[in-house]
Amino acid sequence: MKPPGTFTTFDDAYDKAQSRLVRDAARGYRALLASVIKGMPRHLVEQAACRFDPDLHTGPDAFAEEPADARAAREQVAREVCAECPVWASCLFYALDARPDTGVWAGLTPDELAAFAGGQGASTPTPREAA
């Protein structure tokens, strides 16, 4: 056992490797977040509840398969996050204008956004009802 406060070459290499892993993970997280918020108005980016877990709102990357039941569960949790979001209305207007292809925006999937925008009768839930 080594005395407290002393380091070996192995410890230094381990710390450097850990630091590199943390930096790489942070870079990946920032890239994912950047893809979610690309084109969004700044106040949405800074105040949106989805900024804490962009994976929740976008799903797995394009190379991963997501089972339907897992997607439904993830989207339900995303809807719940959206329902409490302080910029929910602004996000809805942005999503209706931008028409995203994937993800959960203001509590709605792209198909639900299209139905909501198209006003397909009274059976179409409002975004808050969907959440």
UniProtKB/TrEMBL annotation:
Gene Ontology BP terms: cell redox homeostasis; negative regulation of DNA-templated transcription
Pfam families reported for this sequence: Whib (PF02467)
Protein source organism: [Actinomadura] parvosata subsp. kistnae
Gene Ontology MF term list: 4 iron, 4 sulfur cluster binding; DNA binding; metal ion binding; protein-disulfide reductase [NAD(P)H] activity
Keywords: 4Fe-4S, Disulfide bond, DNA-binding, Iron, Iron-sulfur, Metal-binding, Transcription, Transcription regulation
This protein's record includes keyword Transferase: no
Family label: Belongs to the WhiB family.
Residues annotated as domain 4Fe-4S Wbl-type: 49-115
Ion transport is among the record's keywords: no
Protein name per Swiss-Prot or TrEMBL: 4Fe-4S Wbl-type domain-containing protein
Cellular compartments annotated: Cytoplasm
Domain of life where this protein originates: Bacteria
GO cellular component, one term: cytoplasm
Cofactor field: [4Fe-4S] cluster
